[in-house]
Amino acid sequence: MKILSVIGARPQFIKTAPISHAILKREKEGASLREVIVHTGQHYDENMSEIFFQELEIPEPHYHLGVGSGSHGWQTGQMLERIEKVLVAEEPGLVLVYGDTNSTLAGALAASKLHLPLAHVEAGLRSFNRRMPEEINRLVADHLSDLLFCPSQTAVDILAQEGIRRGVHLVGDIMADSLALALTRIDLRSEILGRFGLKEHSYLLATIHRAENTDQPENLRAILTAFQLLNEPILFPVHPRTRKTLGKLEYSSPANVKMVDPVGYLDMVRLEKDARMILTDSGGIQKEAYWLGVPCVTLRNETEWVETVESGWNQLAGAEEEKIIHAVNSFTTPETRPELYGNGRAAESILDSLAKSLGIGA
């Protein structure tokens, strides 16, 4: 069976790696599987795209659609048109989409319109905030999908509450697979602490990329003011969207905040692992912080990864200056860290479920 994977953004490159590796392994063992990778071009900067393919040894995309950035409607429309042409040409037995980006939405819509079986990896997540573009994308993808691969029982329960019970599989989180792979490589392939003059557990790591923070200057200003008032070293890899807004604000970073370009996945894992604390609005980094045992302050008012908050390893501070400062200064690390989101074998579980559900060779 031909599986067509639609990816386009940094988190999706990380998520697709374990599945691509598992498909190749089974193909070599004689299974009737073949993957066609379609890169929409949603993230196209080298530090946001190519480096992930190199570091995670993801096969070169068969199609690169080159859509690039733009408004949500324009970007999704361009992707939908171009993905549809690929689907008509390739006639896959299954379309696989990941996460909650515009690439996810476009891939799901294109497959559904052509009546092709659709699978969604990282199904069932909800922030219950429909002002987030990601919330709309994941809602639509879930309700169109034939197979839904959930990272947690909470996600399974949410789908059931929405009336989605068929084709739902609890497989764990695919990003745990990717992180396990990265941890075997960072000691040999990442020298980023020395490059930036950092010492282990003596700095904060910050990332900001969500539209609710980057597209609302008052939110971004409050977060940056909190960074300055924290008055301890902060490394801040700056997302292209965030850098654009900072330019409009004519922002000049204070002495304690080091702004750098986005870094590769292995370097990012090293930075996360050795940080004293992480401040982020990224869902993926919230989970990685948890798995690595690093306290996390989330720069949002809600999170899809509620279990990390319930465990005490993640605190929600939103974009409020005082809340951010209080969370960082008062954070008490819990004594226990229960296993969350599976055992790092989500890719194998997904392929086993595909084989059983679609009757393909395992």
Instruction: Kindly report how far apart the N and C termini lie.
Output: 11 Å
CATH class of the largest domain: Alpha Beta
DSSP strand count: 13
How helix-rich are the residues, as a percent range?
40-55%
> Which segments are poorly predicted (pLDDT under 50) over 5 or more consecutive residues?
none
Biggest β-sheet strands, sense, barrel? 7 strands, parallel
Would you identify the CATH architecture of the largest domain? 3-Layer(aba) Sandwich
Helix-strand pattern, N to C? EHEHEHEHEHEHEHHHEHHEHEHEHEHEHH
**Mean pLDDT over the residues:** 94
Structural class: alpha/beta
Q: What is the alpha-carbon Rg in Å? A: 20 Å
Strand-residue proportion: 5-15%
Strand numbers in spatial order across the main sheet = 3-2-1-4-5-6-7
- What do we call the CATH homologous superfamily of the largest domain? Glycogen Phosphorylase B
* Multimerization status: single chain
Helices and strands in order:
Elements (H helix, E strand, L loop, with lengths): L1 E6 L2 H19 L5 E6 L10 H6 L7 E2 L7 H19 L3 E5 L3 H12 L4 E4 L11 H12 L2 E4 L2 H9 L6 E3 L3 H10 L2 H4 L2 H4 L8 E4 L3 H4 L2 H14 L3 E4 L2 H10 L7 E4 L4 H10 L2 E4 L2 H10 L3 E3 L7 H5 L3 E3 L4 H10 L15 H13 L4
Parallel strand pairs: 1-2, 1-4, 2-3, 4-5, 5-6, 6-7, 8-9, 8-11, 9-10, 11-12, 12-13
Helix pairs in contact: 1-7, 1-17, 3-4, 4-5, 11-16
